Amino acid sequence: MPMLDAYIPDGALDPTDERALLARLTDILLEHEGADPANPVARKLAKVWLHRPAALYHAGEPATLPHYKIICSVPEGQFDDERRSSMTRAVTDAVIGAERGRYDDDPYRVWVFPSEVTEGTWGAGGRIVRLSDIAGVVLGDPERGRAYAERRLGLRQPAAV
To answer: What are the Cα distances from residue 102, in Å, to 17, 36, 111?
Structure first.
């Protein structure tokens, strides 16, 4: 149940390239969450919100080039340092690639915020949805989902002394 907020200035990308980028960002988000982007159940849970910032100031002045902010949110336990780093690189490359050389390829114009939503604070369908619930749906088996969530969340727990 990953979600992504993409802040893309209006007109920064060709509309066809922008649609392709949003589909690619969905794939990247699913891959780095640990899901198969080709899995129709996992894909159905992925959401992307496109935001059109009215203005951006860079160094206190109106920006002359487009800048992008991508916020990637997944349930707690799905990211680790490697996944965060790899996703940041993949998202940055995808955004710069979607520009097709229209602007300089400065990767610092793309800001990526991979974040986890604390277990027990994700709401959907009028209820709290936990990692075990989501994994159970994607894996097609609630027990496998519970075991998966225990493993992933167990990696986050400090060892007992």
So the answer is: 12, 32, 18
Residue 138 CA to residue 35 CA, distance in Å, equals 8
**What sign does the CA torsion over 86, 52, 3, 158 have?**
positive
pLDDT exceeds 80 at position 119 = yes
The per-residue pLDDT for range 30-70, each reduced to its tens digit, is 999 999 999 999 999 999 999 999 999 999 999 999 999 99
Confidence of residue 1 (pLDDT cuts 50, 70, 90): confident
Whole-angstrom distance, CA of residue 69 vs CA of residue 3? 14
pTM (two decimals): 0.90
What integer is the mean pLDDT of 125-134?
95
All structural domains of the chain, each given as residue ranges with its CATH number in brackets, are 3-120 (3.30.429.10)
Other CB atoms within 10 Å distance of the CB of residue 56: 15
Cβ 78 vs Cβ 87: under 8 Å: no
